[in-house]
Design a protein that fits this description.
With 216 residues, the protein is of the alpha/beta class. The longest helix has 15 residues, at 152-166. Strands 1-8-7-6-5-4-3-2 form an eight-stranded parallel β-sheet. It has helices at residues 17-25, 49-58, 76-82, 97-106, 152-166, 183-189, 198-201, 206-214, and strands at residues 4-7, 32-37, 63-68, 86-90, 110-115, 133-137, 171-175, 193-196. Strand 3 (63-68), helix 3 and strand 4 form a beta-alpha-beta unit. The chain has a single domain (4-214), classed as Aldolase class I (TIM Barrel), CATH 3.20.20.70. It contains eight helices and eight strands; from the N terminus they run βαβαβαβαββαβαβαα. Bound molecules: D-xylitol-5-phosphate (DX5) and zinc ion. Zinc ion binds at residues 8, 33, 35, 66, 175, 195.
């Protein structure tokens, strides 16, 4: 199965957002990864609804929205309205993760759960059939351009086995420090969707990098 590549707009050039969205539209990439940070759950603030709505108007591919915010349940409806196709909340930020997943699905979006590098995959055991996507963070969330944490590979393998045993069709996504050096190994471990920020937008020829990664 070919990988799903989701370039992260966090690393796009915001002076040329239109150009960078068009770049992804016309590339072989599959989704737009959109990182929303609140300055509380993570030590950084990115952007909110106005930017998301503009991206939605221009994007011809699904918006994969990654919420790094506390109490994400307060905003699920707003993100549906703003155009999120996949909405991922952090396990660590959700007291009632099961209810949040149900709400996301009932709003017509695909539901995702993200876990931080310090969170074991075993916490997902009772919700394996309640989400469409599981995002394994391979850096501590908050910033683009960080170094990939190798332990992630074991976590992906473990989660792949858990999903198979549960008969779940959910996708495993990996986010943080992903690039040419680890892309094939992550697919091999069982990841299907890979987020790449700096590896794509930090490159001289982002389109060439996308093509190369998609060929792996
Ligand atoms: C980090 C974000 C990532 C980030 C990835 O908190 O969730 O999506 O944009 O950027 P790179 O690929 O540069 O690590
Ligand atoms: Zn992300």
């Amino acid at each position: 199965m070919p990988s799903i590549l989701a370039p992260s707009l966090l690393s796009a050039d915001f002076n040329h957002l239109y150009r960078d969205v068009e770049l992804v539209n016309s590339s072989e990439a599959d989704w737009f990864h959109v990182d929303v940070m609140d300055g509380v759950f993570v030590p950084n603030i990115s952007f909110g609804f106005p930017i998301l709505q503009h991206v939605k108007k221009l994007a011809t591919k699904p918006l994969d929205v990654h919420l790094m915010i506390v109490q994400p349940e307060r905003y699920l409806e707003d993100f549906a309205r703003a155009g999120a196709d996949i909405l991922t909340v952090h396990w660590e930020a959700s007291t009632h993760i099961h209810r949040s997943l149900q709400s996301i699905r009932s709003l017509g979006m695909k539901a995702g759960v993200a876990i931080n590098p310090g969170t074991p995959v075993s916490v997902l055991n009772d919700i394996l059939n309640d989400a469409d996507l599981f995002l394994v963070m391979s850096v501590n969330p908050g910033f683009g351009g960080q170094k990939f944490i190798p332990r992630t590979l074991d976590k992906v393998m473990q989660l792949r086995t858990m999903l198979e045993q549960a008969g779940s069709q959910a996708i495993i996504e990996v986010d943080g420090g992903v690039g040419e050096a680890n892309y094939a190994a992550l697919l091999e471990a069982g990841a299907q969707a890979l987020v790449a920020g700096n590896a794509v937008f930090g490159a001289e020829d982002p389109r060439a990098v996308i093509r190369k990664l998609k060929a792996l």
